[in-house]
Design brief:
This protein has 451 residues and is mostly helical. It has a single domain, classed as Up-down Bundle (Amino acid/polyamine transporter I), CATH 1.20.1740. Helices cover 79% and strands 1% of the residues. Strands 1-2 form a two-stranded antiparallel ribbon. Helix 7 runs parallel beside helix 13 and helix 9 packs across helix 20. It is globular and about 55 Å long. It is found in: Cell membrane. It comes from Salibacterium qingdaonense. Keywords: Cell membrane, Membrane, Symport, Transmembrane, Transmembrane helix, Transport.
Length: 451
C-alpha cells in the first residue's frame, strides 16, 4: 500500500459515517438545548451583520468584517465544485441533506463563536486571539487537546487553505486562458503577501470588498438561471426531495450514499463544527459574546442555504450530471451547467468566481494559521515567520502535483473537528448560560427603545 492509498484510507475513516454522525449530532444536541435559536433569531442575526453600534467595543474588526473573513475562508471550491461532486456521486437528493446539515450547523457555528469571544485574550501586539484552542484550554482545562487542534489547524491552513486553492486557480487559468502555472504562483504570492502582512485589519478590509462582490455576482447568475427557467424549478426541487429518501440516483442506489455525500459536502463548504471560523469571530468588536455568535451563525445560512442551494438547483435543472457527470465533475460540471443556460458568460462567471473565492479563502486561512502558531509559541515573531512561509508555499501550490497534499489536507481538515466538538459538547452549559444572559439584555434593550 503506497502513501496515497494509506492517506485515502485515513481520509475515508476521518470523514466516514461515525464522524459525520458526531458532527450533525452535536448540531442537533445544541439546537435542542438552544431552543432552535438558529430559526427564531435569524432575522435579528442578519440585521446585526450591518450594525454599527459595537464599533467602540473591544475587538479588532467589525461584525461585518469578521463575517466576511469567515465567509472568505469558506465560500469557494465547496460551493462550486463540492456541490457538483455531491450531486454526481450522491444524486440530486444530496442537496436536501446539505440543507439539513446546514440547519443544525448554524447552531454549531453559533456555539463556536460564543465560546470564542468569551474566552478570547489580547496578545502581545494588543490584538484579539481566540478560537477552539483557547476555549478548550481555558474552558475545559485540557491544554493537550487544545494543542492538538492548533497543530491540525496549521496543517489544514497550508493544505485546504493555501496550496490546494492555488492549484485550483492555476488549473482554471491554464485550461481557460493558457496562463503559465509559475506566473500564477508568483502573482498570487505578491497579492496574498501584501495583504496578510497587515494582519487581520487589512485582511478584513480586503475580503469585505471581494466576498460581497463575487458572492453577489455568482448568486445573481444562479438566480438568473432559476428565474428565466422557472418552469423547470418545481421538477428540480421535487427530484431533490424525492431522491433524498430513495437514493435511486446515487452510486449503487444506496440511501446512505445520498446522506453521506450531502452532509460531507455541506460540512466541507460551511465548515460548521471544524473550528476554523470562531478564530475570526474572536477578533470582532462586540459587547456580548451572544451578539457576535448570531452574526457568525449567518455564515452557514449564506454559504449553504443561499449559495450552495443555487448551485445545486441549477445543476439538477441542467441535468448534465447524468451525462457529463460520469467524466466531468467538480467545478468543470458547474461551469458546463452555467454555460448551458447562460452561454459563454456562464462559464466565465464560474471561472472568475472560483479564482476570487480561492484567493479570499487563502487570505482567511492565513489568519487562522497565524493565530494557531501564536497560541503554540506565544511569540509575536512567530507570526511573521508563519506569514513568510505561508506566502512561499503558494508557489509550490501552483507548480506541483498536489494529489498527496490534497489527501493530507482532507485528513487535517477533518481531524480539526474532533477536539473542537469535544469542546463544544463539554462547554454546552456555558453556551446556554451566555445565550440566556444575552437574550435578557436584548429584551431590556428593546424595552428601553420603546419607552
Amino acid at each position: 500500500m503506497n502513501v496515497q492509498e494509506i492517506l485515502g484510507t485515513i481520509s475515508d475513516f476521518v470523514w466516514g459515517p461515525p464522524f459525520l454522525i458526531l458532527l450533525v449530532g452535536t448540531g442537533i444536541f445544541l439546537t435542542v438545548r438552544l431552543g432552535f435559536l438558529q430559526i427564531s433569531m435569524l432575522p435579528y442575526a442578519l440585521k446585526l451583520v450591518f450594525r454599527k453600534k459595537d464599533q467602540s467595543s473591544e475587538g479588532d474588526i467589525s461584525h461585518f468584517q469578521s463575517l466576511m473573513t469567515a465567509l472568505a475562508a469558506t465560500v469557494g471550491t465547496g460551493n462550486i465544485a463540492g456541490v457538483a461532486t455531491a450531486v454526481v456521486v450522491g444524486g440530486p437528493g444530496a442537496v436536501l441533506w446539505m440543507w439539513v446539515s446546514a440547519l443544525f450547523g448554524m447552531a454549531t457555528k453559533y456555539a463556536e463563536a460564543i465560546l470564542a469571544v468569551k474566552y478570547r485574550i489580547k496578545d502581545d501586539n494588543g490584538e484579539m486571539a481566540g478560537g477552539p484552542m483557547y476555549y478548550i484550554e481555558k474552558g475545559l482545562g485540557w491544554k493537550w487537546l487544545a494543542v492538538l487542534f492548533a497543530v491540525f489547524a496549521i496543517g489544514a491552513s497550508f493544505g485546504i487553505g493555501n496550496t490546494v486553492q492555488v492549484n485550483s486557480v492555476a488549473e482554471v487559468l491554464q485550461s481557460n486562458w493558457g496562463f503559465p502555472d509559475l506566473a500564477t504562483g508568483i502573482i498570487l504570492m505578491i497579492l496574498v503577501g501584501i495583504v496578510i502582512i497587515g494582519g487581520i485589519k487589512t485582511i478584513g478590509k480586503v475580503v469585505s470588498i471581494i466576498v460581497p462582490f463575487m458572492a453577489v455576482l455568482y448568486v445573481a447568475a444562479g438566480l438568473g438561471i432559476i428565474l428565466f427557467h422557472l418552469e423547470a424549478v418545481p421538477a428540480a426541487v421535487g427530484l431533490i426531495l424525492s431522491d433524498a429518501f430513495t437514493g435511486q440516483a446515487a452510486a449503487g442506489g444506496a440511501i446512505g450514499v445520498v446522506i453521506q455525500m450531502g452532509v460531507a459536502r455541506g460540512v466541507f463548504s460551511n465548515e460548521a463544527g471544524l473550528g476554523s471560523a470562531p478564530i475570526a469571530a474572536a477578533s470582532a468588536k462586540t459587547d456580548y459574546p451572544g451578539r457576535q455568535a448570531l452574526v457568525s451563525m449567518t455564515q452557514v445560512f449564506i454559504d449553504t442555504i443561499v449559495i450552495c442551494s443555487i448551485t445545486g438547483i441549477a445543476l439538477v435543472m441542467g441535468g448534465l450530471y447524468q451525462g457529463l457527470g460520469s467524466d466531468v465533475e467538480g467545478a468543470a460540471l458547474t461551469s458546463a451547467t452555467f454555460e448551458s443556460f447562460l452561454g459563454p458568460a456562464g462559464s466565465l462567471i464560474v471561472s472568475i468566481g472560483l479564482i476570487f473565492f480561492c484567493y479570499s479563502t487563502i487570505l482567511g486561512w492565513s489568519y487562522y494559521g497565524e493565530r494557531c502558531i501564536y497560541y503554540l509559541t506565544k511569540k509575536p515573531v512567530s507570526i511573521l515567520t508563519y506569514r513568510l512561509v505561508f506566502t512561499a508555499a503558494i508557489l509550490a501550490g501552483a507548480v506541483l502535483n498536489l494529489e498527496t497534499v490534497w489527501a493530507i489536507a482532507d485528513v487535517m481538515n477533518g481531524l480539526m473537528a474532533a477536539p473542537n466538538l469535544i469542546g463544544l459538547l463539554g462547554l454546552s452549559g456555558i453556551v446556554v448560560a451566555e445565550t440566556t444572559h444575552f437574550l435578557k439584555v436584548k429584551r431590556q434593550e428593546e424595552s428601553a427603545s420603546r419607552q
